[in-house]
Amino acid sequence: MTEGRPGPATRLAMASVAVAIAVLGMKAVAWWLTGSVALFADALESVVNVAAALAALAAVRYSALPADANHPYGHAKAEYFSAVLEGVLIVVAALLILREAWGALLAPRMPEQPGLGLAVSAIASAVNAAWAMLLMRRGRALRSPALLADARHLWSDVVTSVGVIAGVGLVVATGILWFDPLLAALTAANILWSGFRLLRESVGGLMDEAVPPATMERIRRIVAAEATGAIEAHDLRSRHAGRFTFLEFHLVVPGAMTVRESHDICDRIEAALKAELSGAVITIHVEPEGKAKQTGVPVL
Questions:
Q1: Right CATH number for 213-298 from 3.40.630.30, 3.40.50.2000, 3.30.70.1350, 3.30.450.20?
Q2: Which of 64, 246, 259, 289 suits 5 as a labelling partner, its CA being 20 to 30 A distant?
Q3: pLDDT, tens digit, for every residue of 248-300?
C-alpha cells in the first residue's frame, strides 16, 4: 500500500460498506412495504452485512501495516479476527430471526403490497449477487480472508433472498400464511450453517492450519526438482496467515559443499516456490549430510 493511498483490498472493503448500506436500505423498504417476517429476516441479515463490512474494512487496513518490532511476521492474521467476528454476527442474526419466525407462526398475516416489496427485494438481491461475485474473484486474487469471508456471506445472503422472494410470492398466490414464518425459519437455518462454516475456516487460520494436501504435494515436487546438488529436504512445515503462506524445512547438503554453493541452492528453491505460491515466506535450514533422515523429500 503506497503512502496516503489505500491498496486494492482496502478500496474493495470500503466499497463493500457502501454496497451493504445501500442493500440494507432497499431490504428495509421491502419489509416496510409488506410487513413480511421472511423479508424482515432478510433485512436483518443485511444489518449483519453492514457490521461485517465495517469489520472487514478495519481488518484489511490493519493487516496491510508492515512488519514491526512487535509483529515481525506482519499483521496479516488480523483478517481472521474479522472473519471470526462476522461468523459470530451471522449466528446472532440467525437466532434473532428464529425468534421473529416463532412469533409470526403464532400470529401469521398476509403480506401487504407484495408486488412492490418483492420488486425492491429482487433489485437488492441482484446488487448483492454482482458484488459477491466481484469480491470472490478479487479476494482470491489478493488472498484476503476478510474479503473472501464477506463474499461468502453475501452469496449466502443472495441464496436466502431468492428463496424468500419465491416463498413470499407463494404465500400471496396460495393464501397459506404460515409459509411466511416457515421461510424465515429456513432462512435462519441457512444463515446459521453459513456462520458455523465461516467460523470453522477462520479458526483454522488462527490455529496455523497447514496448506491443503494438493498444495503441499506441489511444494514437495518443486523442492525435489530445484534442489539439485543437495541430498534431501525434510521436516517440511507450512501455515497460512492471511495472504501469506509460511514454509519451513531442513535442506541436507554434502559435508564438503561450501556455504556459497548451498546458498545458491536455497535461492533457486525459493525463487521457484515464490513463482508458484504468491505471498510465500520461506525459511530453509541447511544441514550437513549426517543429518539426513531418509524420510524427507529426495532430490531428483
A1: 3.30.70.1350
A2: 246
A3: 999 999 988 999 999 999 999 999 998 888 778 899 999 988 777 766 666 65
The grid coordinates listed for 222 are 518443486
Spatial separation of the C-alpha atoms in residues 61 and 89, rounded to whole Å: 20
pTM (two decimals): 0.60
Going by the DSSP 8-state scheme, the letter that residue 289 receives in this structure is: G
Half-sphere exposure of 109 (CA within 13 A, CB side): 10
CB atoms within 10 A of CB 155: 18
Report the chain's terminal Cα–Cα distance, integer Å: 40
At CB < 8 A and 24+ separation, what contacts does 238-241 make? 238/210, 238/211, 239/208, 239/209, 239/210, 239/211, 240/205, 240/208, 240/209, 240/210, 240/211, 241/73, 241/74, 241/76, 241/77, 241/205, 241/208
What interhelical angle do 179-206 and 145-174 show, nearest 10? Answer: 170
Rounded CA gap, 53 and 18, in Å? 9
Annotate 143-161 with DSSP letters as a single string. T-HHHHHHHHHHHHHHHHH
**Cα–Cα distance, 28 to 167 (Å, whole number):** 18
Task: Tell me the percentage of the chain whose pLDDT exceeds 70.
Answer: 88
Burial class (CB in 10 A: 0-12, 13-18, 19+), 279: middle
Q: What are phi and psi of 144, to 5 degrees?
A: -110, 110
Compute the distance between CA of residue 41 and CA of residue 184 in angstroms, rounded to an integer. Answer: 6
Q: Structurally, what CATH architecture does the domain formed by 8-206 represent?
A: Up-down Bundle (1.20)
Q: Quick check: 108 and 180 in contact, CB under 8 A?
A: yes
